[in-house]
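Uracil-DNA glycosylase (Flagellimonas alvinocaridis), 221 aa
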Amino acid sequence: MDVNIDPSWKAHLEQEFKKPYFEQLVQFVKQEYSQHTCYPKGKDIFAAFDHCSFQETKVVIIGQDPYHGPNQANGLCFSVKDGIAHPPSLVNIFKEIKVDVEKPYPKSGNLERWADQGVLLLNATLTVRAHQAGSHQNKGWEQFTDAVIRTVSEQLDGVVFLLWGGFAKKKAALIDKGKHHILTSGHPSPLSANRGLWFGNQHFSATNGLLSKLGRQPIDW
């Protein structure tokens, strides 16, 4: 079975695509897309990998589910297409960046510009049915994306993992803390941010500080 994913990732995930759970997942996704409106578009399901090659991965940000409203999801967690209103979590991300690294609030919420610099924007579940949050959870995507996190942990060095919120923090168990850096905070959603668990985490400047120490190009957030 052929999966349309960037060749640099395909080489490392080939065995995953051959496992029974993944075969079943593909059949489920095909059926969902044929019978319902689903997001992101089929060509964008693996966009996070297409914009950030395996060898270039410097930072990993973990989300939970794609946005389930029209024209929002583009295959990268927290990101929306150009010209689309910024969802609340993304607004809070940009507000923190403005204070933390003194970068003006951007017009576009499209985070492909981060991915192109080596930020893997990975949702745990890569597809969703329109207007039904979590509708494609527990169908096999999480097993696949956990394998992605483990592969990055095992085969790369000095990656900065940003784990925001309780769901993402659980993924720390998959990461070799001796080789990588893990930064955690509350989720940027209003519920968490308004309780003081997001703003002031300074993850963006901290990430760039870690990358600089490793002799790597910082991210232009």
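The CA atoms of residues 114 and 221 lie 7 Å apart. The chain has one domain: 7-214. ok done for today
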